Amino acid sequence: MRLLLVEDDAQIASFICKGFREAGFVIDHVGDGLSGMELLLEEKYDAAIVDIMLPKLDGISLIDRIRNKKVITPVLILSAKRSVGERVEGLQSGADDYLVKPFAFSELLARIQALIRRSRNIAEPTLLSVGDLMMDTVRKKVTRANKPIDFQPKELMLLEYLMRNKGKVVSKTMIMDNVWDYNFVPQTNIVESCISRIREKVDRSYTDKLIHTLKGIGYVLESKE
Q1: Strand 147-149 relative to strand 141-144: parallel, antiparallel, unpaired?
Q2: Do 203 and 209 contact (CB within 8 A), yes or no?
Q3: How far apart are CA 30 and CA 33, in angstroms?
């Protein structure tokens, strides 16, 4: 899942980004409202976290403008403002939730997960399978033929993306957009290297190969049996 954080306080931003990345999210960060608005108009995000007091464009104006452009991305406001009137103003601007600073990261994570579930109107499955390959996305456990497989965090994120799109061809660009941050400067073979490591762990010992490369097009995860 991909998030956008619009926050000008570097310390708070670092804390939030670290927490969400450890929770398995891709999160982009910008420090001013104008850049945040431009990204929300141009890119697809599962949710956004927006501070109110921002340089160039305040959070309330940012939300108002993207809603006028029919952007429906769920938005949670972060603010040091505690009054009822200020919270009401934030929600009336088109925000979906409001969290006052300081806050516990666990609460922020829970609220964002709830916003995403409500926006999709369905609960994303947490148990994924392709053939005899199984993933528990909550426990971060993967098995094939009931044998556990260990993955590095980025490998796990990429495998989950492939499993959620089983049977569909996904391009290198799609993978970069959903597994790496938008401002990540890609190495020429970063996706290929990660796919290679996953394939070694998932397919090496089995006749039914699950990860297939379509040269010049992308990758597809599917069982042929």
Answers
A1: antiparallel
A2: yes
A3: 8
Say which residue the tokens 């000008």 belong to: 8
CATH superfamily of 2-120: Response regulator (3.40.50.2300)
Higher pLDDT, 139 or 69: 69
What is the tens place of the pLDDT at every residue in 26-63? 899 999 999 999 999 998 899 999 998 899 999 999 99
pLDDT, tens digit (0-9, with 9 covering 90-100), for 127-185: 899 999 999 987 889 999 999 999 998 899 899 999 988 998 888 877 887 787 655 55
CB 74 within 8 A of CB 115: yes
Under DSSP, the state recorded for 170 is: B
Q: Which of 120, 106, 100 is nearest to 45 (CA)?
A: 120
Q: Where are the domains of the chain?
A: 2-120, 127-221
Q: Hey, which residues does 79 pair with through a beta bridge?
A: 100
CATH architecture of the domain covering 127-221: Orthogonal Bundle (1.10)
Bond from prior residue into 102 cis (ω within 30 degrees of 0): yes
Cα dist. 207→29, 101, 203, 211 in Å?
Answer: 43, 54, 8, 12
- Tokens 């922020």, located at residue: 108
